[in-house]
Design goal:
The complex is a heterodimer of chains A (135) and B (614).
Chain A: E1 4-6, E2 14-18, E3 23-27, H1 35-52, E4 58-64, H2 70-88, E5 92-100, H3 104-116, E6 121-127, E7 130-131
Parallel strand pairs in A: 3-4, 4-5, 5-6
Antiparallel strand pairs in A: 1-2, 2-3, 6-7
Chain B: H1 2-87, H2 90-97, H3 103-119, E1 124-129, E2 134-137, E3 140-144, H4 153-161, E4 165-172, E5 177-186, E6 194-201, H5 203-211, E7 219-223, E8 229-232, H6 248-256, E9 266-271, E10 277-284, E11 291-297, H7 298-301, H8 303-380, H9 384-390, E12 393-399, E13 407-413, E14 419-426, H10 430-451, H11 455-471, E15 483-491, E16 494-500, E17 504-508, E18 511-515, E19 536-539, E20 545-549, H12 551-554, E21 557-558, E22 563-564, H13 567-575, H14 584-598, E23 607-613
Antiparallel strand pairs in B: 1-2, 1-6, 2-3, 4-5, 5-6, 7-8, 7-11, 9-10, 10-11, 12-23, 13-14, 14-15, 15-16, 16-19, 17-18, 17-20, 20-23, 21-22
Helix pairs in contact in B: 1-8, 2-3, 8-10, 10-11
The chains are: A alpha/beta (135), B alpha+beta (614).
Chain lengths: 135, 614
């Protein structure tokens, strides 16, 4: 299965989906005019990938998104639901959410997502030197 | 229409630009070529002329006078030798001494005289005897010499001279010819018995002079001590004086040099009476006192340059024309793409103008339409009068990112008592957001008019109705829209709050309390139709201030790290407001803080902030 790389723009994050390493990362601000249009190919890819994901492979996902607008956060929610489904089906998925310590909105956002989800969801603050806590 | 009128004049401008450019380049190049040709031509002309004059003066003229004088000298020397041979011949002596009686010797001598005269291109050979006074010439006695005859004076003069050989020049004015007689004494020089010798005509040399005719006006003269011309390439000068044709000072120089027979040939130049520059060379002959003079007008000696000049000019003109023609074609070829580029630019400009105009028109009509939509959107927002009937003081900061937006606020004073204050943030901005606000506004009106119970009930009902209106449970639809909302119901001192992702901030005694409301938006496909709504209650006291804000304000990016501004900053700002100051001032400080934080960034979302106090 081919990977998927979407380069970062001013209003959309960089998305890297690597099936070989079983990694998914989304980094950057997300406030496109049409969020559904931006996230749709990611959903399609993820559906396909999760279908064939083996039980023993751990899909590692990490996010570092300083800002997500309302419609993007709806899309993120849809993405989490897909992961949740896979998780409930016995597949191994872990999520790490990085946020800059000074960015309370990003933390609030992560907490809201985490609240709704049953899969492993780690929220890790970053200070100026990088990871402060956790790893 | 204005464009169409502009275009032809634009076209002319481009043509003019092109023509001027090409012609300028061609003229410039031609001037350079002409200059170069004239310059090199002039230089080579001057160099060639100088070289020619130099060669003429230092070589050609010297060569002519030298070789001519050598020739004359050679001729004279040969004649001297012949005369001496004749005079020293013992047979001649014997014959003369015998007084002509020695017949045998006489025969030999007569044959010799005849032979010399005929076969060695002398005019004649002669023997004049003192014994018989007979003058023999051509095998016969021509005359008898007499002391009294003037014409025979030369004979007696020669006998007395004591010189073995003497040259006697006899100019014959009738035949216009000069003869040189070589009078040689026979026998003892002190007591000669006869004078024998040959006569040489200079006419023969004159023929040679002719072969040195350099130019039409060149002259080759043989001049004697007195300056008399004895021999000239042009016979008409014979017997004339050279001073008639040459300036006095030149004449003096030539004659002054006369004594120095061994002098090398000399060259001088002068201007004649007509102002022509003349080159003149002269040299003394070794055997006589004569001087060879050769002169030629400068203009003639370099006349060949004239034809060279004309040919060079013709060649230059042809070259010039050729180069100009070739250059014109080359520059035309070069200029052609330039011209095409100009045309293309012109067309592009036209197209761009047209498109810009079209776009401007379209943009204008879209903007007109949106402006009208803004009026509609603003029409549903509460008026000042409605606010005044509701509360003591308030402020509203409503600032859509675009002309219209997805944020709205809504108030209602209920007939049954109490009032509702609502702030909503629909998904999307701009026109789609505005459409949502209109829809939600109308649903909200409908609920409150028909079945109002509580803030919580309005929120739950709104969730159901928006879902139904927008999604109709059609699973295939891609769109998923909803809204965040905060609903406050105030009845007397009792405040009921129900929120969906928009909290209520209450400021009391400088402290800000936050009623968070639900964590989920409403109206989305995923929003549960039978969701439980959390209702918050608050007992209002005098001086309590209520604040509602959509995420547009707190999530605006900016600052040093381009992060969202954050809720904390907002809370601090409202907490810092001076109690009792004019309420509207709070809006100003919120705006200032917002602008400061945003800096040069663009507004990211629609903004609505409301503050109320009762």
């Amino acid at each position: 299965m081919d990977g998927l790389i979407i380069e970062q723009t001013k209003s959309t994050p960089k998305v890297v989906l690597d099936p070989q390493k079983a990694k998914l990362s989304i980094e950057g601000q997300s406030y496109p005019e049409n969020a559904f249009k931006f996230y749709e190919p990611i959903f399609t890819w993820l559906d396909e990938y999760l279908d064939q994901l083996q039980q023993d492979v751990v899909l590692e996902i990490y996010f570092h998104m300083p800002y997500i607008n309302t419609s993007s956060s709806k899309c993120m929610m849809m993405l989490f639901e897909k992961l949740e489904e896979a998780h409930e089906a016995g597949k191994k998925v872990t999520i790490r959410w990085y946020y800059d310590q000074e960015n309370e909105i990003a933390l609030e956002c992560a907490e809201e997502f985490k609240e709704d989800l049953g899969l492993p969801f780690e929220i890790i603050p970053l200070n100026d030197e990088g990871i402060n806590n956790g790893k | 229409m204005e464009n169409d009128r502009d275009n032809p004049s634009k076209g002319k401008n481009f043509d003019l630009m092109y023509d001027r450019g090409t012609i300028k380049v061609i003229i410039c190049a031609c001037c350079i070529i002409i200059l170069a040709v004239v310059f090199t031509g002039s230089i080579s002309y001057v160099i060639t002329r100088n070289a020619m004059v130099d060669k003429l003066k230092n070589r050609d003229m010297l060569y002519i006078v030298q070789s001519m004088s050598e020739k004359i000298d050679g001729r004279i020397e040969r004649a001297q030798e012949t005369s001496l041979l004749l005079a020293d011949d013992p047979t001649v002596l014997a014959w003369v001494v015998s007084g002509g009686k020695d017949e045998a010797a006489g025969e030999i001598v007569k044959t010799k005289i005849t032979d010399i005269g005929k076969n060695y291109d002398y005019v004649k050979a002669f023997v004049a005897s003192t014994v018989t006074n007979q003058y023999w010439e051509d095998n016969k006695v021509v005359k008898l010499l007499s002391k009294t005859s003037y014409t025979d004076k030369w004979f007696y003069k020669a006998l007395k001279s004591g010189k073995k050989i003497e040259l006697n020049i006899d100019y014959d004015s009738i035949h216009n010819e000069t003869f040189i007689f070589f009078n040689t004494l026979v026998g003892d020089v002190r007591q000669p018995v006869a004078v024998a010798g040959v006569a040489l005509s200079l006419g023969d040399i004159a023929k040679e002079f002719g072969s040195y005719k350099f130019g039409e006006h060149s002259n080759l003269w043989l001049v004697d001590k007195q300056g008399k011309i004895h021999l000239a390439d042009d016979l008409e000068y014979n017997g004339r004086l050279a001073s008639d044709f040459l300036p006095t000072e030149v004449m003096q120089q030539i004659l002054g040099d006369m004594d120095n027979a061994t002098a090398r040939p000399k060259v001088l130049e002068y201007q004649d009476s007509q102002g022509r520059i003349m080159d003149l060379a002269y040299q003394a002959t070794a055997t006589t006192d004569w001087k060879l003079v050769f002169q030629i007008p400068r203009s003639e000696s370099i006349s060949i340059l004239g034809s060279v000049k004309i040919n060079a000019i013709i060649a230059s003109v042809i070259t010039l024309l050729l180069m100009v023609v070739i250059f014109y074609f080359i520059s035309y070829k070069i200029a052609n793409p330039f011209k095409r580029a100009l045309r293309l630019a012109e067309q592009m400009e036209k197209q761009v103008k047209l498109r810009t105009h079209e776009l401007a028109e379209k943009n204008q009509s879209i903007m007109d339409s949106i402006d009208y939509a803004k009026r509609l959107q603003e029409a549903i927002l509460p008026t000042e009068t409605e606010w005044a009937a509701l509360c003591r003081e308030y402020f509203v900061l409503w600032r859509p990112r675009d002309v219209v937006g997805g944020d709205f606020y809504w108030i209602r004073k209920l007939d049954a008592g109490g009032c509702l204050i609502v702030v909503g943030d629909c998904t999307g901005h701009g026109v789609p957001g505005a459409l949502m606000t209109m829809t939600v506004n109308s649903i909200l009106n409908h609920i409150v008019d028909n079945c109002f119970e509580s803030a919580g009930q309005v929120l739950a009902e709104l969730n159901c109705r928006v879902k139904k209106t927008l999604h109709r449970e059609d699973e295939n639809q891609v769109s998923d829209d909803g809204l965040d909302i905060a609903i406050c119901y105030i009845e007397g001192a009792r405040l009921e709050f129900a929120g969906a992702k928009i909290p209520l901030y209450i400021k009391r005694d400088g402290q800000v309390h936050v009623l968070k409301g639900d964590n989920r938006s409403i109206g989305y496909r995923r929003s549960k139709i039978d969701r439980e709504v959390c209702r918050h209650f608050w007992d209002l006291e005098t001086g309590d201030c209520l604040y509602l804000t959509t995420d547009g304000y707190i999530e605006q990016n900016g600052g040093t790290k381009d992060f969202p501004m954050g809720r904390k900053a907002f809370i601090e700002c409202i907490a810092g407001q001076v109690q009792g100051a004019p309420f509207i001032k709070q809006r100003e400080s919120l705006e200032i803080m917002f602008e400061d934080y945003k800096g040069s960034q663009l507004q990211r979302d629609d903004i609505t902030v409301i503050g109320v106090t009762f």
